[in-house]
Amino acid sequence: MRSDALTWALRRVGERTLGWVERMGFAARFSLAVLTHSPAALRRIQLTMREIYFAGVLSLVIIMVSGLFVGMVLALQGYEVLTRYGANESLGVLVALSLVRELGPVVAGLLFASRAGSAITAEIGLMKTTEQLSAMEMMAVDPLARVVAPRFFGGIISMPLLTALFSTLGVFGAYLVGVKLIGIDAGAFWGNMQSAVDFRRDIVNGIIKSVVFGIAVSLIAVFEGYNARPTAEGVSTATTRTVVASSLSILALDFVLTVFMFRGIGV
Amino acid sequence: MNRSTIDLWVGLFVVIGIGAIAFLSLKVGNLTSVSSAPGYHLDAAFDNIGGLKLRAPVKAAGVVVGRVERITLDPQTYQAVVSMRIDQGYQFTKDTIASILTSGLLGEVYVGLDSGGDTQMLADNARIGKTQSAMVLEKLIGQFMFDKAASGATSAGASDASPASPPKATAPTGAAMAGGTK
């Protein structure tokens, strides 16, 4: 009896592992296929435009409002701590650096994954469930070129713009709270910020991060949708997986990128 | 939703996105004033630069006149050679004193330039002769302790001169290390 349970458990582990490795292999093959179909998406720019509208324009409100509030909270909390050291003039530096380097790309990426990534997965998954993808193949229309690649590129193009908007609104929110509400000198707020934030090291690195996160989220979203089991439950599982997997990969990638980008701070 | 409406919205989105990047670059990152202004280079050798960093400001009378571009160690003299880029509009006399200063107790470290009364000006790539090193807190404290110990020893045991002599011998070197060349 006990040995049966043990065998069953071992078999489960083996099955899970093999399934996972197989999924990784399929994901790699799928990524390559999406890349080879990317010229098609760029040639038919109208399809990509539509996806930028759905992924980017419709995420504008949530991104901008979140950015504003994140910046305002950062300013309040930062002021609280900085006042203890008599350094409340550095509030602009604190807010701008944390937004541009870390919070902007990461939080915008997480919001983008839950707002747009899940929608992409659900849409492609439902297309698969209702056999629209098979119908396209039947009509000699490649679903990778027609459905997947435009969504992938729409996500990649939207993500850096959304991140920049998030950071901008965050800095503006910090300005509102710090300068207008608390009463820090506006000259010190902007001046310290400008002398501390470096274009190449902080802003360009932030944009690179957001592009990488955009690629990761879009790829996971289209892959999960394309790979979903064609049932109602399968689509729901795939949507959940998109949000979980892309959030985790954003945080992990952020760590890796930060190690490479800011290793030599101040040297 | 028809095609032109989508195009309009996407266009608007891209425009404000690029606007946000421009705002971050210009207003937050201050891209405009970093590299565009023409300038010339000045070198200065310090015994100790303390916590001076690359891109630290160079100030004269509190006004930022340039940035630190390169910090190297001279292998012959074991001095730190600080290369500064000064804005073209500012000229300094040949007897200018360069010193490493700190704004406030915890503030940034910067290079301060104090002009003298010389009539000749420093040219491009000139070396500033008179420098004052960074104040290193540990050395200042050490020097203070030595002075205290020395004065205590001389007042307590005036007849016996031998315990007071070692601190006296070390105190001037401590002062020279902390003060640098004047």
**Could you spell the SSE succession of chain A in H and E letters?**
HHHHHHHHHH
Helices and strands of chain B: which structural class?
Answer: alpha/beta
Tell me roughly what share of residues is in helical segments of chain B.
25-40%
Strand order of the largest sheet of chain B: 7-1-4-3-2-6-5-8
Question: Keywords, please?
Answer:
heterodimer, A: 267 residues, mainly alpha, 10 helices, 87% helix, 0% strand, B: 182 residues, 3 domains, 8-stranded mixed β-sheet, elongated, disordered C terminus
Report a brief summary of the structure.
The complex is a heterodimer of chains A (267) and B (182). Chain A is mainly alpha-helical.
Topology:
The complex is a heterodimer of chains A (267) and B (182).
Chain A: H1 2-36, H2 38-43, H3 45-55, H4 60-84, H5 91-129, H6 132-138, H7 143-182, H8 186-196, H9 199-226, H10 232-261
Chain B: H1 3-28, H2 32-35, E1 39-46, E2 57-60, E3 63-73, E4 80-87, E5 97-102, E6 109-114, E7 126-128, E8 130-132, H3 137-156, H4 165-179
Parallel strand pairs in B: 1-7, 2-6, 5-8
Antiparallel strand pairs in B: 1-4, 2-3, 3-4, 5-6
Helix pairs in contact in B: 3-4
Description:
The complex is a heterodimer of chains A (267) and B (182). Chain A is an all-alpha fold and 267 residues long. Chain A has one domain (37-261). In chain A, 87% of the residues lie in helices and 0% in strands. Chain A has 10 helices and no strands. Chain A has helices at residues 2-36, 38-43, 45-55, 60-84, 91-129, 132-138, 143-182, 186-196, 199-226, 232-261. The longest helix of chain A is centred in the middle third of the chain and has 40 residues, at 143-182. Chain A is globular and about 65 Å long. Chain B is of the alpha/beta class and 182 residues long. In chain B, strands 7-1-4-3-2-6-5-8 form an 8-stranded mixed sheet, with no helix packed on it. Chain B starts with a helix and ends with a helix. The chains are: A mainly alpha (267), B alpha/beta (182). At the A-B interface, helix 3, helix 7, helix 8 and helix 9 of A face helix 1 of B.
